[in-house]
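Fold it.
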Amino acid sequence: MRTFLLALLTTTLIAQDGFEPLFNGKDLTGWEGDPKLWSVTDGTITGNNPAPDAMPHNSFLIWRAGTVKDFELRATIRITGDNNTGIQYRSRPLPEVGPFAITGYQCDIHPAIEHTGMTYEEKGRGIFGLNGQTLVLDPKAERWLIAEHTPVKVDVSQWQEYTIIAKGNHLTHKINGQITSELTDFDEKGRALEGLLAIQLHRGNPNTVQIKDIRLKVITDAKVIPFTETQLPPTAKKIPKPTTRNPQGTGPSTPAK
């Protein structure tokens, strides 16, 4: 009886947690990607780019069981090889590029510390806020640095938990519970409030991406924050669009063809 009650309590706590697993631990049910690149190995989702010429462009494993709007996502991921990956969300397909190409917000997972956990838009508006930054994108798509903190340092080749919290036009990224970047997006023409969820496999330098746990909780009470002058405090600093010397990893990059 005691064992039954403990099991019942555990089940109740899990249900109250509100997170639904998106990976069954066995196969890619609910997901779609290039079968030459993605598989399930030893109970983990595995994406493998074996050689510099294996992929003409970035390819994505796309969650096909729905779209994401306002949510909290937690995923345990690691990447080996001098390259990067990312969690794509509120994204849309790019069929003109390829069947598994998409554009949209990304939580970057990168061996260069300034990039990991940053807020980025794949094939779109580029980098918003680096690891350690809180940014506002105003209605004219200008970037404003609101606050800075010490970047969260992790080894992305080891298992780390990445969290994305998307509420209306406010986006928060975390690694192991520590905030890496925040963005409030007032660019109505450029932003997205709903779209696809996916995992990136980056072209170029060989790399392997593994995901062993990915869970989603839908948020139902989020609202879009309207832009007012109070969104830009007196200490806000207008900054140019960030660039990078590390488009793939921390070493030399395989050039695009």
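DSSP finds one helix and 18 strands in the chain.
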